[in-house]
């Protein structure tokens, strides 16, 4: 289900340093394995005499020095997109690497340095976050640091920085957070909004006069590598009034608290699925400032990604490996058909079309609904808190998707609590 134990391995190396090596730079070589997503390095110094040894710390990869902290740190992390200050994020290329030491002060009796390197490997897993947020870079009141800190508190893995018609947030975001900061911009016009995700500077000028200009801006963002999301398309305040045939990747069917605007977006999306489109649905809080209802990661977008990076997350969304819950701790639903999951296309030659639904964090009274292109196929009233499994024969359908509805006492309403993208069938 949604919790997968990270695969890791640990290498420990002890290097004795003689007094004669004082003032020398020393390498402790190690092999960077394939498929490493992140490494954590720490070291312990043992002086063999009364004098205290002073040994500095750094790192090199197969081509260059990747960081140096001198005597300021005893440990650091290094990943593709985020690292401890003083260390360069980037690819963890397999091959010969080395922990670097400067033998600044070595007792006459020598010292020993024990280096421990923990390798955390890429593994497909569910990551959760928020794909639509604002900050002081546009009309929000949260700083980027506050946004990142809040997401960390919620146990989230990523946040998209989608300020209105500006990209300064993509340059000034904090690098010391465990949350993946996805660059973005909300292309904001008088007749609709769209998120451009994944690139620092998707367009040079946001101003448009008509449909032709909108098409050109989207084409520019696309050429620069951005993923295109039509935001809150049926919002009562700022709906998408441009042509729905514009080039886009995904649609935001769930924006902020689940209200009538999201019902309209959900119904439109479902009609697109029935027509044969395989359109990925995403969610986003659209949070701007402290609010009793509009909050970070409400809704929360879950993505089954192969690695915790911008590219890994966006690539997984492109595959439709997306589930949306009303909050990070909301009920989580997964659909499988054999080895296939949400977003996947089950080939015509597969013998079984049995869909297996596994739900967790349910509450008694929740209602699980299974939809196909034909009808509402099944409704199951949850009788007790916890987990539930459902089997459904999808023979004759082109897709199956799931919803969970819950009564929220705070507002005395029954609202969407979880939504999956479909499993498709050829």
What does this structure look like?
- Residues 129-191 form the Polymerase/histidinol phosphatase N-terminal domain.
- This is Phosphoesterase.
- The chain has helices spanning 144-153, 169-172, 211-223, 260-274, 310-318, and strands at residues 8-17, 25-32, 36-47, 54-55, 57-60, 65-70, 75-79, 95-105, 111-121, 125-133, 158-161, 180-189, 192-197, 227-230, 250-255, 280-284, 300-305, 322-325, 332-337, 340-341, 345-346, 354-362, 367-372, 376-381, 386-393, 399-408, 413-420, 423-425.
- It folds into two domains: 8-121, Jelly Rolls, CATH 2.60.120.380; 125-425, Metal-dependent hydrolases (TIM Barrel), CATH 3.20.20.
- It is built from five helices and 28 strands.
N-end to C-end Cα span: 25 Å
Count of folded domains: 2
CATH class of the largest domain: Alpha Beta
For the largest beta-sheet, the strand count, sense and barrel status come to: 15 strands, mixed
Poorly predicted residue ranges: none
Measured by DSSP, the beta-strand proportion falls in 35-45%
How many helices in DSSP terms? Answer: 5
**Overall mean confidence score, pLDDT:** 97
CATH superfamily of the largest domain: Metal-dependent hydrolases
CATH architecture heading of the largest domain: Alpha-Beta Barrel
Structural class from helices and strands? mainly beta
What level of helicity do the residues show? Answer: 10-25%
Stated plainly, the CATH topology of the largest domain is called TIM Barrel
